[in-house]
Design goal:
The chain is an alpha+beta fold. The chain has two domains: 183 residues, no CATH class; 165 residues, no CATH class. It is built from eleven helices and 13 strands. It has a seven-stranded mixed β-sheet with strand order 1-8-9-4-3-11-12. It has a four-stranded antiparallel β-sheet with strand order 7-6-10-13, with no helix packed on it. The protein has a two-stranded antiparallel ribbon with strand order 2-5. Strand 3 and strand 4 form a beta hairpin. The chain is elongated and about 95 Å long.
Length: 355
Amino acid sequence: MRQRDELNAILDRRLRARRLGGRVSLASAALAIAFSTVASAHKPSDSYLSLDATSMQGSWDIALRDLDDAIGVDADGNGAVTWGELRQRESVLTAWAFSRLAVKSDGAACKLQPLGLAVDDLSDGAYAVLRFSLGCARPKATLSVQYSLLFDLDPTHRGLLRVISAAGVTSAVLGPDTASANISIAAPGALHFAAQGALALFKQVWAMFILVALLLRRYPRKERVATVVSFALALSIVLVLSGLLTSLHPAPRVLQAAVPLSLVLVALNLAWPLLRERLWALSFALGLLHGFDFAQRFAAIPLAGASVARALPGFNLGLVVTITAITLLVSAIGEAVQSGLRAPREYARAGSSSQ
């Protein structure tokens, strides 16, 4: 996890550097690209490979100092590579780079097709940017990458891979010992978000407390069922509306004050019952309140490329199933305790009547 976070930070800095440094366009073809073969010996050798599994295109940033070592792009040997010199070697560069990269979509080989060449002038030197299309069908499950750029010349070379897909952004470091990567690009399914919904309920102790407190008193079974259904229905209504209307979320401070207060009110009603009938109405109101809290928790969950329309039903299902399970467990324990308390009295009554 730490290595992945560090890699993402490196790639993010790389993207920021690109925006600051800018891309050298064809209009600046007459300008020389600063490049020192001596200084390059003290810099780590990295390339930046970005693949988009949605548009099925990619870009590959390779340092000019590495290109000069591999295929020779500084024609006059003066230590400065011009745009013209790079363009003269474009076909050689493309063939050499593509021979060291293999991409597969769901196991089927992709035929890389060049789309153009550009240059990035960054703080650590100049990079040739090779843009290309993957030339294969969009993957449904896995995008595989086999990488071997410069490993024969520099065993310390690393390729920093970034794959953009429906599952989000995935990063990997490719080296001689880890030259391949299989990237899962499938977005999480409903079961994943159902588990997130169940986990959210267990993390939200207030809601569990209130649900159990509403079931502690000896209400008829029909009333208890109506109480739980009302609570779950209210949660679902708020979740759906919050998913459709982002402006519906109340201020966090309001929720932070209202949620503990709701627990106090339920505890008071448990100790001194003020609402003996239509408990489902109180449960529905509390469900609406806590629904906003769960909506904020849902909004904080990474969707990893899944749409809200796909993730929200799963999250809601996890909540409802967990609430039902807690209800059944609490009811079963309550009935068992009540049966245990009634048994001695009934036994004593039966004994006294027999005498």
